[in-house]
Amino acid sequence: MTAIHDKLAVQLYSVRHEMAEDLEGTFQKLSDIGFRNVQLDGMRGNNRAEVLRLLEKYRFNVIGMHIKHDRFLNDLDGIVDEAYFFGCKTIFDKYIEEEDQNLAGYEKTKRTLLDAVARLHGLGFRVGLHNPEYDFNDRVYGRRVMDYLTDPENGLCVYAEPDTYWISAAGHDSVEYVKRYSGRAPIVHMKDFRSGFELEDMANNLVEIGDGEVDFAAIIAWGERHGVEYYCIEQDRSDLNMFESLKKSRDYLLKLM
């Protein structure tokens, strides 16, 4: 059985600027903090062979990959090639582009993702969807977008990657909301939220884990009973040095665990 502390991960979007400036230094600092699991989010201008070399040097386990929406529409073979290259078969549509945030776009997205599931599940792939706040409030045929897109169909399932910050920003209780994804959310994005500010004011409403209002102890307790494999820290921005921010969030979760 995997120890709880081994289930913590970091989404590399958090250190996108740092990766662009100093790839090895970034990986070394993440390793020094104690991270062993990472979720990829693009190469940030680096050669993918160099990214893989350093992932292996610092003994990181790639637990998932965020892929741009248009690549699922137009480059599934390229996604598969990249997934095999990094040894990771858990792939997520990063977010639905603005031009597809409408009925036709959501229908197309569901068809596209289910087609990817049908083509790839026999190879051991898991296809999922990450989401911003509109997916929790906009509706398609009476269903919230995130639910519509992840509703099983003909025995096929698009996995959910619930994000505690965006659920909270949408006005929902993140602990209650994730319960609908029992067994269908191998990775949960751990991000804290502080109310009282405009949605766009991420300088104030997005805070380090433990400084906001999300009940992470309850999220973890639920996750341990319902199939969550990794709790992935993502910090879009911070007033702290990003490595200090990630360490603070990781330390808080370790205390809970």
UniProtKB/TrEMBL annotation:
InterPro entries attached to this UniProt entry: IolE/XylAMocC-like (IPR050312), Xyl_isomerase-like_sf (IPR036237)
- Domain of life per record: Bacteria
Coiled-coil residues are none
Name of the protein in its database record: Sugar phosphate isomerase/epimerase
Report the source organism: Listeria riparia FSL S10-1204
Q: What is the lineage of its organism?
A: Bacteria, Bacillati, Bacillota, Bacilli, Bacillales
